[in-house]
Protein backbone atom coordinates (compact mmCIF):
# COMPACT_ATOMS: atom_id res chain seq x y z
CA UNK A 1 0.00 0.00 0.00
CA UNK A 2 2.76 2.43 0.94
CA UNK A 3 4.62 1.58 -2.29
CA UNK A 4 1.50 2.47 -4.26
CA UNK A 5 1.12 5.72 -2.32
CA UNK A 6 4.72 6.65 -3.02
CA UNK A 7 4.41 5.98 -6.75
CA UNK A 8 1.21 8.03 -6.99
CA UNK A 9 2.82 10.93 -5.16
CA UNK A 10 5.77 10.90 -7.53
CA UNK A 11 3.46 12.28 -10.20
CA UNK A 12 4.48 15.86 -11.01
CA UNK A 13 2.67 18.38 -8.85
CA UNK A 14 4.51 21.54 -9.80
CA UNK A 15 5.85 24.05 -7.32
CA UNK A 16 5.22 23.62 -3.64
CA UNK A 17 6.00 25.09 -0.27
CA UNK A 18 8.63 23.83 2.17
CA UNK A 19 9.39 20.14 2.45
CA UNK A 20 8.39 18.58 5.78
CA UNK A 21 11.98 17.76 6.76
CA UNK A 22 13.08 21.34 6.08
CA UNK A 23 10.74 22.80 8.71
CA UNK A 24 10.49 20.19 11.49
CA UNK A 25 13.70 21.46 13.20
CA UNK A 26 11.97 24.83 13.74
CA UNK A 27 9.00 23.25 15.52
CA UNK A 28 11.04 22.38 18.62
CA UNK A 29 12.17 24.75 21.35
CA UNK A 30 15.83 24.20 22.19
CA UNK A 31 16.88 24.29 25.86
CA UNK A 32 18.52 27.71 25.64
CA UNK A 33 18.30 30.50 28.23
CA UNK A 34 19.95 31.80 31.38
CA UNK A 35 22.46 29.51 33.07
CA UNK A 36 20.10 29.09 36.03
CA UNK A 37 17.31 28.04 33.65
CA UNK A 38 19.60 25.60 31.81
CA UNK A 39 21.04 24.22 35.06
CA UNK A 40 17.52 23.25 36.17
CA UNK A 41 16.78 21.56 32.86
CA UNK A 42 14.43 24.35 31.76
CA UNK A 43 12.04 23.23 34.53
CA UNK A 44 10.96 26.53 36.11
CA UNK A 45 7.46 27.11 34.74
CA UNK A 46 5.72 27.11 38.15
CA UNK A 47 8.73 28.24 40.16
CA UNK A 48 9.16 31.44 38.12
CA UNK A 49 11.35 34.43 38.91
CA UNK A 50 13.81 33.72 36.09
CA UNK A 51 14.11 35.77 32.92
CA UNK A 52 13.89 32.70 30.65
CA UNK A 53 10.46 31.73 31.97
CA UNK A 54 8.83 34.35 29.73
CA UNK A 55 9.33 31.98 26.76
CA UNK A 56 7.71 28.96 28.52
CA UNK A 57 5.23 30.28 31.12
CA UNK A 58 4.90 34.08 30.89
CA UNK A 59 3.38 34.20 34.38
CA UNK A 60 6.79 33.31 35.85
CA UNK A 61 7.88 36.90 35.27
CA UNK A 62 5.21 38.11 37.71
CA UNK A 63 7.24 36.73 40.64
CA UNK A 64 9.94 39.37 40.17
CA UNK A 65 9.88 42.11 42.84
CA UNK A 66 12.63 44.24 41.35
CA UNK A 67 14.45 45.11 38.14
CA UNK A 68 16.80 42.52 36.67
CA UNK A 69 19.17 42.42 33.71
CA UNK A 70 21.26 39.46 32.51
CA UNK A 71 23.54 38.39 29.67
CA UNK A 72 24.24 34.74 28.76
CA UNK A 73 26.79 33.16 26.43
CA UNK A 74 28.85 30.03 26.16
CA UNK A 75 30.29 27.25 24.04
CA UNK A 76 28.55 24.41 22.22
CA UNK A 77 30.06 21.18 20.85
CA UNK A 78 27.92 19.13 18.46
CA UNK A 79 29.00 15.55 17.71
CA UNK A 80 27.55 12.92 15.40
CA UNK A 81 28.35 9.29 14.72
CA UNK A 82 26.82 7.40 11.76
CA UNK A 83 27.13 3.63 11.24
CA UNK A 84 26.18 2.44 7.75
CA UNK A 85 26.84 -1.02 6.33
CA UNK A 86 29.78 -1.58 8.66
CA UNK A 87 31.40 1.82 8.08
CA UNK A 88 31.46 4.46 10.83
CA UNK A 89 31.79 8.20 10.23
CA UNK A 90 32.16 10.79 13.01
CA UNK A 91 31.98 14.59 12.99
CA UNK A 92 32.39 17.33 15.58
CA UNK A 93 31.67 21.07 15.50
CA UNK A 94 32.54 23.60 18.21
CA UNK A 95 30.76 26.94 18.19
CA UNK A 96 30.44 29.94 20.49
CA UNK A 97 26.86 30.77 21.40
CA UNK A 98 25.29 34.04 22.49
CA UNK A 99 22.03 32.65 23.76
CA UNK A 100 20.18 35.20 25.91
CA UNK A 101 19.90 38.90 26.72
CA UNK A 102 17.04 39.74 29.09
CA UNK A 103 15.55 42.59 31.11
CA UNK A 104 12.60 42.94 33.48
CA UNK A 105 11.27 46.21 34.87
CA UNK A 106 9.18 45.69 37.98
CA UNK A 107 6.65 48.24 39.23
CA UNK A 108 5.52 48.05 42.87
CA UNK A 109 1.95 49.35 42.80
CA UNK A 110 1.53 49.43 46.61
CA UNK A 111 -1.89 47.87 46.25
CA UNK A 112 -3.29 45.05 48.33
CA UNK A 113 -4.79 43.40 45.24
CA UNK A 114 -2.57 44.24 42.25
CA UNK A 115 0.83 44.19 43.90
CA UNK A 116 3.28 44.21 40.99
CA UNK A 117 3.09 44.90 37.27
CA UNK A 118 6.18 43.80 35.35
CA UNK A 119 7.44 44.42 31.83
CA UNK A 120 10.02 42.06 30.32
CA UNK A 121 12.17 42.03 27.17
CA UNK A 122 14.47 39.31 25.88
CA UNK A 123 16.56 38.23 22.94
CA UNK A 124 17.11 34.48 22.76
CA UNK A 125 18.26 31.80 20.39
CA UNK A 126 15.19 29.59 19.82
CA UNK A 127 16.88 27.03 17.57
CA UNK A 128 20.61 26.68 17.05
CA UNK A 129 21.00 24.34 14.09
CA UNK A 130 24.72 24.74 13.36
CA UNK A 131 26.26 21.29 12.98
CA UNK A 132 28.16 18.93 10.67
CA UNK A 133 27.17 15.40 9.67
CA UNK A 134 28.81 12.64 7.62
CA UNK A 135 28.06 9.04 6.59
CA UNK A 136 29.64 6.52 4.27
CA UNK A 137 29.46 2.81 3.46
CA UNK A 138 28.93 0.07 0.93
CA UNK A 139 26.22 0.73 -1.63
CA UNK A 140 25.02 -2.89 -1.88
CA UNK A 141 22.17 -2.92 -4.37
CA UNK A 142 21.09 0.64 -3.60
CA UNK A 143 21.63 3.85 -5.47
CA UNK A 144 20.19 7.34 -5.63
CA UNK A 145 20.04 6.80 -9.37
CA UNK A 146 16.91 4.68 -8.90
CA UNK A 147 15.18 7.76 -7.41
CA UNK A 148 16.27 9.77 -10.45
CA UNK A 149 14.87 7.05 -12.68
CA UNK A 150 11.49 6.98 -10.86
CA UNK A 151 11.14 10.75 -11.08
CA UNK A 152 12.03 10.64 -14.75
CA UNK A 153 9.47 7.91 -15.51
CA UNK A 154 6.75 9.99 -13.84
CA UNK A 155 7.51 12.91 -16.21
CA UNK A 156 9.79 11.76 -19.08
CA UNK A 157 11.66 13.90 -21.56
CA UNK A 158 13.94 13.34 -24.56
CA UNK A 159 17.48 13.53 -23.21
CA UNK A 160 18.76 14.36 -26.70
CA UNK A 161 16.53 17.39 -27.09
CA UNK A 162 17.10 19.30 -23.86
CA UNK A 163 17.25 23.04 -24.47
CA UNK A 164 19.66 25.45 -22.84
CA UNK A 165 16.86 26.89 -20.70
CA UNK A 166 15.73 23.55 -19.30
CA UNK A 167 15.84 24.76 -15.66
CA UNK A 168 14.04 28.02 -16.30
CA UNK A 169 10.53 26.87 -17.00
CA UNK A 170 10.26 24.27 -14.25
CA UNK A 171 8.80 21.61 -16.53
CA UNK A 172 10.89 18.81 -15.11
CA UNK A 173 12.36 17.87 -11.77
CA UNK A 174 15.81 19.41 -11.42
CA UNK A 175 17.26 16.15 -10.07
CA UNK A 176 16.47 14.33 -13.32
CA UNK A 177 17.79 17.21 -15.41
CA UNK A 178 21.08 17.17 -13.53
CA UNK A 179 21.30 13.41 -13.97
CA UNK A 180 20.79 13.83 -17.71
CA UNK A 181 23.49 16.49 -17.89
CA UNK A 182 25.88 14.21 -15.99
CA UNK A 183 25.48 11.43 -18.60
CA UNK A 184 24.06 8.95 -16.08
CA UNK A 185 22.99 6.74 -18.98
CA UNK A 186 24.49 5.12 -22.05
CA UNK A 187 25.57 6.29 -25.48
CA UNK A 188 22.22 5.30 -26.97
CA UNK A 189 20.38 7.83 -24.84
CA UNK A 190 18.99 5.39 -22.29
CA UNK A 191 18.39 7.40 -19.17
CA UNK A 192 19.94 6.00 -15.95
CA UNK A 193 19.20 2.35 -16.75
CA UNK A 194 19.35 -0.10 -19.58
CA UNK A 195 16.02 -1.42 -20.81
CA UNK A 196 16.31 -4.28 -18.32
CA UNK A 197 16.41 -1.65 -15.48
CA UNK A 198 19.97 -2.44 -14.42
CA UNK A 199 22.10 0.64 -13.67
CA UNK A 200 24.51 1.86 -16.29
CA UNK A 201 26.81 3.11 -13.53
CA UNK A 202 26.64 0.62 -10.66
CA UNK A 203 28.10 1.99 -7.39
CA UNK A 204 30.20 0.06 -4.88
CA UNK A 205 30.17 2.75 -2.17
CA UNK A 206 28.22 5.89 -1.25
CA UNK A 207 29.13 8.91 0.86
CA UNK A 208 27.31 11.93 2.27
CA UNK A 209 28.47 15.13 3.98
CA UNK A 210 26.37 18.02 5.36
CA UNK A 211 27.00 21.41 6.96
CA UNK A 212 24.21 23.39 8.65
CA UNK A 213 24.45 26.97 9.88
CA UNK A 214 22.07 29.40 11.59
CA UNK A 215 18.64 28.75 13.04
CA UNK A 216 15.87 30.85 14.59
CA UNK A 217 16.29 33.95 16.77
CA UNK A 218 13.50 35.32 18.96
CA UNK A 219 12.57 38.61 20.60
CA UNK A 220 10.11 38.30 23.49
CA UNK A 221 7.99 41.08 24.97
CA UNK A 222 6.30 40.17 28.26
CA UNK A 223 3.65 41.73 30.51
CA UNK A 224 2.88 40.08 33.85
CA UNK A 225 0.97 40.84 37.02
CA UNK A 226 1.10 39.70 40.66
CA UNK A 227 -2.36 39.54 42.22
CA UNK A 228 -2.40 39.29 46.03
CA UNK A 229 0.75 37.13 46.03
CA UNK A 230 -1.55 34.22 45.16
CA UNK A 231 -2.28 34.59 41.47
CA UNK A 232 0.27 35.38 38.78
CA UNK A 233 -0.70 36.13 35.19
CA UNK A 234 1.40 36.85 32.11
CA UNK A 235 1.50 37.09 28.35
CA UNK A 236 4.43 37.08 25.94
CA UNK A 237 4.52 38.13 22.31
CA UNK A 238 7.29 36.40 20.40
CA UNK A 239 8.82 37.76 17.19
CA UNK A 240 10.99 35.32 15.23
CA UNK A 241 13.68 35.63 12.57
CA UNK A 242 14.70 32.60 10.50
CA UNK A 243 18.18 32.53 8.93
CA UNK A 244 19.29 29.02 8.04
CA UNK A 245 21.54 27.48 5.40
CA UNK A 246 22.56 23.95 4.49
CA UNK A 247 25.21 22.55 2.17
CA UNK A 248 25.28 18.86 1.33
CA UNK A 249 27.31 16.59 -0.91
CA UNK A 250 26.31 13.07 -1.98
CA UNK A 251 28.67 10.83 -3.98
CA UNK A 252 28.59 7.36 -5.49
CA UNK A 253 31.80 5.43 -6.26
CA UNK A 254 32.85 2.36 -8.21
CA UNK A 255 36.24 0.62 -8.37
CA UNK A 256 37.58 3.37 -10.70
CA UNK A 257 36.62 6.32 -8.48
CA UNK A 258 33.68 8.73 -8.24
CA UNK A 259 30.73 8.05 -10.54
CA UNK A 260 29.09 11.36 -9.72
CA UNK A 261 28.81 13.91 -6.92
CA UNK A 262 25.63 15.89 -6.24
CA UNK A 263 26.02 19.14 -4.27
CA UNK A 264 23.01 20.96 -2.87
CA UNK A 265 22.71 24.43 -1.41
CA UNK A 266 19.61 25.41 0.53
CA UNK A 267 18.80 28.68 2.30
CA UNK A 268 15.71 29.53 4.32
CA UNK A 269 14.86 33.02 5.53
CA UNK A 270 11.69 34.36 7.07
CA UNK A 271 9.86 35.78 10.04
CA UNK A 272 7.01 34.87 12.34
CA UNK A 273 5.20 35.64 15.57
CA UNK A 274 3.20 33.95 18.33
CA UNK A 275 1.44 34.70 21.62
CA UNK A 276 1.90 32.87 24.90
CA UNK A 277 -0.51 33.02 27.86
CA UNK A 278 0.31 31.74 31.32
CA UNK A 279 -0.91 31.56 34.88
CA UNK A 280 0.58 30.45 38.21
CA UNK A 281 -1.56 29.87 41.30
CA UNK A 282 -0.60 29.38 44.93
CA UNK A 283 -3.73 27.48 45.98
CA UNK A 284 -2.99 27.38 49.73
CA UNK A 285 -2.46 30.68 51.47
CA UNK A 286 0.31 29.60 53.81
CA UNK A 287 1.96 27.05 51.52
CA UNK A 288 4.76 27.64 48.96
CA UNK A 289 3.22 25.02 46.67
CA UNK A 290 2.40 26.47 43.23
CA UNK A 291 0.82 25.13 40.06
CA UNK A 292 1.20 26.65 36.61
CA UNK A 293 -0.28 26.36 33.14
CA UNK A 294 0.57 28.00 29.84
CA UNK A 295 -0.69 27.90 26.27
CA UNK A 296 1.35 28.80 23.19
CA UNK A 297 -0.39 29.70 19.96
CA UNK A 298 1.09 28.46 16.69
CA UNK A 299 4.02 30.41 15.35
CA UNK A 300 2.79 31.93 12.10
CA UNK A 301 5.76 32.01 9.72
CA UNK A 302 6.27 33.51 6.30
CA UNK A 303 9.25 31.69 4.80
CA UNK A 304 11.38 31.97 1.66
CA UNK A 305 13.58 29.10 0.52
CA UNK A 306 16.39 29.27 -2.05
CA UNK A 307 17.82 26.20 -3.80
CA UNK A 308 20.62 25.48 -6.22
CA UNK A 309 22.56 22.36 -7.16
CA UNK A 310 25.69 21.17 -8.96
CA UNK A 311 26.53 17.71 -10.29
CA UNK A 312 29.93 16.33 -11.31
CA UNK A 313 29.73 13.63 -13.98
CA UNK A 314 31.81 10.41 -14.22
CA UNK A 315 34.41 12.28 -16.28
CA UNK A 316 34.90 15.14 -13.80
CA UNK A 317 32.84 17.77 -15.63
CA UNK A 318 30.56 19.97 -13.49
CA UNK A 319 27.03 21.08 -14.38
CA UNK A 320 25.16 23.58 -12.22
CA UNK A 321 21.72 25.12 -12.07
CA UNK A 322 23.54 28.41 -11.56
CA UNK A 323 24.63 28.25 -15.23
CA UNK A 324 21.13 29.20 -16.35
CA UNK A 325 19.86 32.70 -16.64
CA UNK A 326 16.17 33.11 -15.83
CA UNK A 327 16.37 32.37 -12.11
CA UNK A 328 20.15 32.38 -11.89
CA UNK A 329 19.90 28.81 -10.70
CA UNK A 330 18.91 30.00 -7.24
CA UNK A 331 15.20 29.51 -7.27
CA UNK A 332 13.02 30.89 -4.45
CA UNK A 333 9.62 29.77 -3.18
CA UNK A 334 7.56 31.61 -0.57
CA UNK A 335 5.24 29.76 1.77
CA UNK A 336 3.31 30.29 4.99
CA UNK A 337 3.60 27.84 7.84
CA UNK A 338 1.86 27.51 11.20
CA UNK A 339 3.40 25.35 13.93
CA UNK A 340 1.29 23.30 16.40
CA UNK A 341 -0.28 24.67 19.58
CA UNK A 342 1.63 23.91 22.80
CA UNK A 343 0.34 23.44 26.34
CA UNK A 344 2.40 23.23 29.52
CA UNK A 345 1.39 22.17 33.04
CA UNK A 346 3.75 22.52 36.00
CA UNK A 347 4.07 22.47 39.77
CA UNK A 348 6.73 23.61 42.22
CA UNK A 349 7.53 23.55 45.91
CA UNK A 350 10.11 25.43 47.96
CA UNK A 351 11.51 24.44 51.35
CA UNK A 352 12.24 27.77 52.93
CA UNK A 353 15.08 29.49 51.08
CA UNK A 354 17.13 26.31 50.82
CA UNK A 355 15.55 23.99 48.26
CA UNK A 356 13.36 24.57 45.21
CA UNK A 357 11.76 21.80 43.14
CA UNK A 358 9.85 22.01 39.85
CA UNK A 359 8.26 19.44 37.56
CA UNK A 360 6.34 19.99 34.34
CA UNK A 361 4.82 18.38 31.29
CA UNK A 362 4.48 19.83 27.79
CA UNK A 363 2.48 18.59 24.80
CA UNK A 364 2.34 19.43 21.10
CA UNK A 365 0.62 17.67 18.21
CA UNK A 366 3.08 17.97 15.31
CA UNK A 367 0.58 16.49 12.88
CA UNK A 368 -1.37 19.76 13.22
CA UNK A 369 1.43 21.68 11.45
CA UNK A 370 -0.14 23.45 8.48
CA UNK A 371 0.87 25.04 5.23
CA UNK A 372 -1.56 27.88 4.62
CA UNK A 373 -1.45 27.95 0.81
CA UNK A 374 -4.69 26.88 -0.85
CA UNK A 375 -2.91 25.02 -3.63
CA UNK A 376 -3.35 21.31 -4.22
CA UNK A 377 0.32 20.80 -3.46
CA UNK A 378 -0.01 22.39 -0.02
CA UNK A 379 -2.95 20.10 0.71
CA UNK A 380 -0.84 17.09 -0.30
CA UNK A 381 1.96 18.23 2.00
CA UNK A 382 -0.46 18.66 4.93
CA UNK A 383 -1.64 15.11 4.36
CA UNK A 384 1.98 13.98 4.31
CA UNK A 385 2.55 15.72 7.67
CA UNK A 386 -0.47 13.97 9.19
CA UNK A 387 0.86 10.64 7.90
CA UNK A 388 4.45 11.06 9.13
CA UNK A 389 4.23 13.18 12.30
CA UNK A 390 2.51 12.58 15.63
CA UNK A 391 2.45 13.88 19.20
CA UNK A 392 5.41 15.16 21.16
CA UNK A 393 5.53 14.72 24.95
CA UNK A 394 8.13 16.50 27.10
CA UNK A 395 8.77 15.90 30.81
CA UNK A 396 11.10 18.18 32.80
CA UNK A 397 12.27 18.12 36.42
CA UNK A 398 14.63 20.53 38.14
CA UNK A 399 16.07 21.19 41.59
CA UNK A 400 18.02 24.03 43.19
CA UNK A 401 19.84 23.96 46.53
CA UNK A 402 20.77 27.35 48.07
CA UNK A 403 23.25 27.84 50.90
CA UNK A 404 24.04 31.44 51.87
CA UNK A 405 23.85 32.75 48.32
CA UNK A 406 25.58 29.78 46.70
CA UNK A 407 23.43 27.50 44.57
CA UNK A 408 23.73 23.99 43.14
CA UNK A 409 21.32 22.89 40.40
CA UNK A 410 20.38 19.79 38.42
CA UNK A 411 17.77 18.99 35.80
CA UNK A 412 16.54 16.28 33.46
CA UNK A 413 14.44 16.37 30.28
CA UNK A 414 12.84 13.60 28.30
CA UNK A 415 11.34 14.48 24.93
CA UNK A 416 9.60 12.03 22.61
CA UNK A 417 10.24 12.29 18.89
CA UNK A 418 7.29 13.44 16.78
CA UNK A 419 8.29 11.27 13.80
CA UNK A 420 6.35 8.08 13.26
CA UNK A 421 8.44 4.93 12.87
CA UNK A 422 7.89 4.69 9.09
CA UNK A 423 8.20 8.40 8.24
CA UNK A 424 9.92 9.16 4.94
CA UNK A 425 10.67 12.01 2.55
CA UNK A 426 8.33 12.04 -0.41
CA UNK A 427 9.95 13.75 -3.38
CA UNK A 428 6.60 13.83 -5.13
CA UNK A 429 5.49 16.47 -2.64
CA UNK A 430 8.73 18.43 -2.86
CA UNK A 431 9.48 21.45 -4.96
CA UNK A 432 10.63 20.45 -8.46
CA UNK A 433 13.79 22.44 -7.69
CA UNK A 434 14.51 20.29 -4.60
CA UNK A 435 17.37 17.99 -5.57
CA UNK A 436 18.16 16.66 -2.08
CA UNK A 437 16.87 13.16 -1.39
CA UNK A 438 18.20 12.62 2.13
CA UNK A 439 16.22 12.69 5.39
CA UNK A 440 16.73 11.87 9.06
CA UNK A 441 14.14 10.45 11.47
CA UNK A 442 14.88 11.51 15.04
CA UNK A 443 14.11 9.33 18.06
CA UNK A 444 13.50 10.32 21.71
CA UNK A 445 15.90 12.84 23.26
CA UNK A 446 17.33 12.89 26.78
CA UNK A 447 18.93 15.94 28.38
CA UNK A 448 20.89 16.10 31.65
CA UNK A 449 22.00 19.39 33.19
CA UNK A 450 24.12 20.62 36.10
CA UNK A 451 24.65 24.15 37.32
CA UNK A 452 25.96 26.38 40.07
CA UNK A 453 25.97 30.06 40.92
CA UNK A 454 26.31 32.86 43.41
CA UNK A 455 23.62 35.48 43.98
CA UNK A 456 24.50 38.61 45.94
CA UNK A 457 22.31 41.59 46.73
CA UNK A 458 23.11 43.31 43.43
CA UNK A 459 25.23 41.08 41.19
CA UNK A 460 24.93 37.41 40.40
CA UNK A 461 26.82 34.85 38.37
CA UNK A 462 25.64 31.42 37.17
CA UNK A 463 27.15 28.56 35.18
CA UNK A 464 25.59 25.46 33.68
CA UNK A 465 26.51 22.38 31.67
CA UNK A 466 24.07 20.50 29.44
CA UNK A 467 24.39 17.18 27.65
CA UNK A 468 21.81 16.16 25.05
CA UNK A 469 21.70 12.66 23.58
CA UNK A 470 19.49 11.55 20.72
CA UNK A 471 19.53 8.59 18.35
CA UNK A 472 18.28 8.80 14.79
CA UNK A 473 18.16 6.96 11.49
CA UNK A 474 19.53 8.65 8.38
CA UNK A 475 18.57 7.74 4.82
CA UNK A 476 20.48 9.19 1.85
CA UNK A 477 17.34 8.45 -0.20
CA UNK A 478 14.02 6.67 0.16
CA UNK A 479 13.78 3.05 -0.97
CA UNK A 480 10.23 2.09 -1.94
CA UNK A 481 10.94 -1.59 -1.36
CA UNK A 482 11.91 -1.02 2.29
CA UNK A 483 15.15 -2.91 1.98
CA UNK A 484 17.58 0.01 2.08
CA UNK A 485 19.02 0.16 5.59
CA UNK A 486 19.36 3.56 7.16
CA UNK A 487 22.51 4.73 8.92
CA UNK A 488 22.29 4.36 12.70
CA UNK A 489 23.06 7.81 14.07
CA UNK A 490 24.02 9.00 17.54
CA UNK A 491 23.77 12.77 18.12
CA UNK A 492 25.39 14.38 21.16
CA UNK A 493 25.39 18.03 22.15
CA UNK A 494 27.60 19.40 24.93
CA UNK A 495 26.89 22.99 25.99
CA UNK A 496 28.46 25.16 28.68
CA UNK A 497 26.93 28.57 29.43
CA UNK A 498 27.50 31.39 31.90
CA UNK A 499 25.23 34.24 32.96
CA UNK A 500 26.16 37.57 34.53
CA UNK A 501 23.35 39.68 35.91
CA UNK A 502 22.51 42.68 38.00
CA UNK A 503 19.50 43.63 40.11
CA UNK A 504 18.66 47.29 40.38
Helix-strand blueprint:
Layout: H1 2-9, H2 20-23, H3 35-39, E1 68-84, E2 87-108, E3 114-128, E4 131-138, H4 145-154, H5 174-181, E5 205-227, E6 231-254, E7 257-281, E8 290-296, E9 300-312, E10 318-320, E11 331-338, E12 342-351, E13 355-365, E14 370-371, H6 376-388, E15 391-403, E16 406-415, E17 439-455, E18 459-475, E19 487-503
Q: What is the name of the CATH topology?
A: Porin
Strand content: over 45%
How many structural units, i.e. domains?
1
Which architecture would the CATH scheme give at its second level?
Beta Barrel
Structural class: mainly beta
What does this structure look like?
This protein has 504 residues and is mainly β. It has a single domain, classed as Beta Barrel (Porin), CATH 2.40.160.60. The chain has a 14-stranded antiparallel barrel.
Summarize the structure.
The chain has one domain: Outer membrane protein transport protein (OMPP1/FadL/TodX) (Porin), CATH 2.40.160.60. Helices cover 10% and strands 52% of the residues.
Top keywords for this entry?
504 residues, mainly beta, Porin, 14-stranded antiparallel barrel, 6 helices, elongated, disordered N terminus
Amino acid sequence: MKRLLYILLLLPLGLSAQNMYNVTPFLDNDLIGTARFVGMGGSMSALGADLSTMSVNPAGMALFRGNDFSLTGGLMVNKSSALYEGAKAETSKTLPCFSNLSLVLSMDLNDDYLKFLNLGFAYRKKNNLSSNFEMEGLAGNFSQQYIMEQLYRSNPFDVNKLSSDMYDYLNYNWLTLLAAEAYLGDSLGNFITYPDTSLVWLPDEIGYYQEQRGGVDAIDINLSANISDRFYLGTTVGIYNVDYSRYSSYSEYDSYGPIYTLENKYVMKGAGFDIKLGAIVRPFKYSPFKVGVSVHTPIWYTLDEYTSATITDPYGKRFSTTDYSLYNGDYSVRSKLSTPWRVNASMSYTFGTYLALNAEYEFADYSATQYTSRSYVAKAQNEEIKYNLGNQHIARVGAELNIKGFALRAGYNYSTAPFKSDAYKNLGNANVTDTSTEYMNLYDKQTCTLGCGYHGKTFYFDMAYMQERQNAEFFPFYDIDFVNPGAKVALTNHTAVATVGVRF
